[in-house]
Structure formats: structure tokens, C-alpha cells
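User
Here is a favour to ask of a fellow structure person. I am asking you to supply a protein in sequence and C-alpha cell form. Please set it down just below, with no commentary around it:

Assistant
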Amino acid sequence: MARAVQAEPFEKVTIKLLMLGDSGVGKSSLMIRFTNATFSEQMMGTTGIDMRVKDLNIQNRHIKIQIWDTAGQERFHSIARTYYCGAHGIILTYDVNDRTSFNNIPNWLEDIRKNTKEVFILLVGNKIDLHKVVSDNEAKEFAEKASIPFIMTSAKNDENVQDAFVNLIETISKSGIVIKPEKMRLKKKEETVKKCC
């Protein structure tokens, strides 16, 4: 991944997050709820890649958050992998009302770990406003075995959405793995030549 630099107090830094998971689990809804504080029942599935930006002041840093929303369909997986490079955090999402989306989480996790080196992962069980077919305990047990944090959300009701994003961002910020915008621009070509995950 891109070379990490230690951020100084009040310095502007950029954090890149990816939204991953099966199609229809609510990745776009979570991203838009966090960035725009809105929700739509008529949300169309993402085709390819979408990106939103949000600025936050956390831990004496002005953080520009780039959130990349990827399509969950199998045919778009190769496109999504090209965005793994340089990512600091991944929000890996399943639908608590869709057993298949949860069963596919190990496949997503394997793909992430195969194609990234140093990235923070948060497992999110979305749509808790609906009937659950995946129990809380089952998801928690999986997250513990996988050594990743876990949170349950509802993009529709705005439940735990802010906590999910902010907690992940704070974890990344504390780790020191953040990229200065000017450094990212200057070294973009060099990093692409050397390696991209």
C-alpha cells in the first residue's frame, strides 16, 4: 500500500476507505447516510465505483475522508481490487436479513487479505431495522475468530452509522497510517511503478 507518514497536529491528512460486500447489503446507503445524512428507499445498486468525500476534525487533525463504494456483483470484483491499493480501512458489510451475504464474508475477507498488506477492517451487519436471519452471536463469534471489530447498523434509521465510520477513522488516525495529500500527489507515479498491493 502507499507509504505511511506520521501526521502532525492540525495537519490535513487523507484517509481512504473502501465499502465492500455483496450487492444489495446497503453499502451505498451507509456511505450516503454518513456523508450526506440522507436515506432513500429507491437506492439503485452501484455499477462499478462511486466515491464521496467528507471532512472531519478528529484528534487535532483535519481529515479528508475518501469513501469508495464498490459494486458487489461478481463481475465487478476485479474492478474493486484495483482500489485496494492505498486503502487505509475497509468497511466489510453484510445484510442481517440475507444469509448468503453473511456466508460470503469469509470469501471477501480472504480476498482482502490476499490483496492488501496493512489495512484496518470493520465488519458491519447492516439493516437491523429488518428481521434478522443472522444472529448477533454468530456474527460476533465470526468477528472474534477473524480478529476484526464488529458493529450492527441501520442506514435507514441512522443507527450506529456515525459510530461505525468514526470509530474506524479514529483507529486509523491513531495508528499513524495516514497520507498527506501533498505526499500522495508527489509520489503517486513512483508508488504505482514500484507496486500496488
User: Anything to note?
Assistant: Strands lie at 12-21, 49-58, 61-70, 89-95, 120-126, 150-152. Residues 2 and 91 are 19 Å apart (CA to CA). The first strand starts at residue 12 and ends at 21. The longest helix spans residues 161-175.
